[in-house]
Structure formats: C-alpha cells, structure tokens
C-alpha cells in the first residue's frame, strides 16, 4: 500500500450539512449505534475488520471532520452497511477507483469486504488522505492505494475497471469526472439517494457524451438495512 500526493484544492467540510465546526463530548462509543445483526451477514468472515473500522470512525471521525456530530447513532446502518452492500457488484480482481473517499465510505469499507480487489482512494484533502492511509495501515489492508488528487487530475490511475462514489455530486457533474478514468467496458457504480431517477434524467447529455450504456438503478440490501441502498450502474464506452 502506498500514498501518492498532489494539489489540495477542495474546501474543507465535514459531512454535517449544517457546516458547524465538529465538537466531541464524552465517550463517542456510548453514542455509537448498536451493531445490527445483519452486519455479520454482510461482511461474512471480514466482520471483525468491519467492527474495527466502525469503532475507529466513531472514535476519530467527528474530531477529524469526517462525520457530522449526529451520525454516531446511525453509523452502522446509514454509512458502513450502506457502503458494504455494494461489495457484490465489485468484479473479481478488479482495480477500483473511489472518488472523494473522505472517511473511507465506500472505499475502505469495500476494501475490507472485497480483499480480492484493489481500491484506489481518490481524495484531495490532505488530512483525509492521512486518515485513509493510517486507517488502512491499522486494519492491515494491503489492497488499498491512497491518491491525493481531484478526480479530474487523477489520470495517472487510469484505466480502472470500475469507479465508485458516494455523496460526491450530482450525476451530471460526476460522470465527466469519473467516466474518463474507466477502461472501455468498465463500470460506474455510484451510490445515490431517493431522487436518483431525477439525476439520471438531468444527466442525459453527459450519459450520451461519455457513451454510457446498460444503465440501471438497482437497490441493494433489502432486508439487511433499514433503507435499501440505491445505486446508479452503467457501462462506459462499450460500443466504441
């Protein structure tokens, strides 16, 4: 595992939509959501690493500005498992880029769940890169590379088999950043919210320009997480 560094040109913000400065009071583990029974099902024999990552994020995430102060009571279901259910879509042995990795959602979670694939975590902020690198070391993950760069400057890692992203930007903005990093016939796998169909319609020009095909919106994790994870999935430039 290694880290590569470039320019940091994105503003520093926590995942707290209020934009308030992070504060930590008391023992964060007391507020951590109780591990759902489905966690062991989703992570399988990698559950101990999943638990360690979740605990580390609970202990350090708010202080480092990785998660908002209201996220601990839903850290497992809304963040960790929401990311982990994406694991079955990762191709065997794939080289996967994760744009805007931040706290490691979904990049580090997928690296835990899919040790057969290699994950390039693309993140422009220095202190978030330091977290990603340190946490991958703590967990003993040898299938992770941390690249400090914006997505549009990350051509050194292309071509990738797949690219993931979570809570980064709307599809019409994300597609021009992500698609050029993917090999012909590779995939975009983007975690999205309830309005994903609206985003697809708004991104028709970008979908056509970057020759995306086999477009689908899939729901993952039904019966395992309180709210299914919605994923925009598309093949890149398959016909050219």
UniProtKB/TrEMBL annotation:
Protein name according to UniProt: Ribosomal RNA small subunit methyltransferase G
Residue ranges, annotated region (Disordered): 1-34
Basic and acidic residues compositional bias, start-end: 1-16
Gene name linked to the record: rsmG
Subcellular location: Cytoplasm
Annotated binding of S-adenosyl-L-methionine, by residue: 100, 105, 151-152, 166
Family under the similarity heading: Belongs to the methyltransferase superfamily. RNA methyltransferase RsmG family.
Domain of life of the organism encoding this protein: Bacteria
MF terms (GO), sorted A to Z: rRNA (guanine-N7-)-methyltransferase activity
Gene3D superfamilies reported in the protein's UniProt record: Vaccinia Virus protein VP39 (3.40.50.150)
GO cellular component annotations of the record: cytosol
Leader sequence segment: none
EC numbers: 2.1.1.-
Pfam families xref list: GidB
Functional description taken from the UniProt entry: Specifically methylates the N7 position of a guanine in 16S rRNA.
Keyword list, A-Z: Cytoplasm, Methyltransferase, rRNA processing, S-adenosyl-L-methionine, Transferase
